[in-house]
Amino acid sequence: MKKEIRNVYLDEDLNIEAYRFQGISQKFPNHFHEYYVIGFIEDGARSLTCQNKTYKIETGDLLLFNPNDNHECEQIDNRSLDYRCINIQVDIMLKTTLEITKKNYLPHFTENVLFHSDLLPLLRNLHYMIMQEEKEFEKEELFFFLMEQLITEHSNASYSDELFEHNTEIETICDYMKNNYRKRIKLLDLINIIGISKYCLLRSFTKQKGISPYNYLMAIRISEAKKLLEKGTLPVEVALETGFVDQSHFSNFFKKLIGLTPKQYRNIFGHIGLNLK
Fold this sequence. Notes:
By secondary structure, the protein is of the alpha+beta class. Helices cover 43% and strands 21% of the residues.
């Protein structure tokens, strides 16, 4: 039997909670929450009853509970439950919905279970970043892109896709990131430059550039990192010079984009030595 893990973390940047229950076999009786719950089954299978409907839920299924949606669940096989979720208080959902739809109302999710949802990787990555106490603004990007799809595709949303279409302002953001990639940049820094909402910036930038602001910033950092590695700079120093949180974060992202570790890339240019880190 797996060891039980019950963790909760409050993310102060997003003002939402993240829960992780692993190795759980207990039955959860009929209950409800006064906040929104967006969760997923990482492993295990359960019988879920919600709003008088019964579902078999399993690995890969995404769960959506509105405030006051009564629900209960219990184990249906010998596997323990690995369940993760984020909890969003009503006031935070109200602000989020206003940013996305430009309307002041609380959405109501029309489906409680999204079977094998293609949104699960977004939620899983967001949950992981919260639990790891990540501070990069990629976390806010993930949150808004996830909520946009949930609100506009799976709720009673009244949605107007009004984008901020001024190319000059988006180019200003690009120039700022090119000139400040060594610093820790926050999404708040970017919206303060041109005075629009976070969601509007994310949507407009992504539409115009074909890449999100965070990934644009990381592409700049990786480009500059390659130049330093080609000159023989040690990977640990390159990570510091290019604005990464630490060497591990740098190495993982570099390999993801380039297909080689920083050390392997540096070695291509003949910089092979015993002091490589």
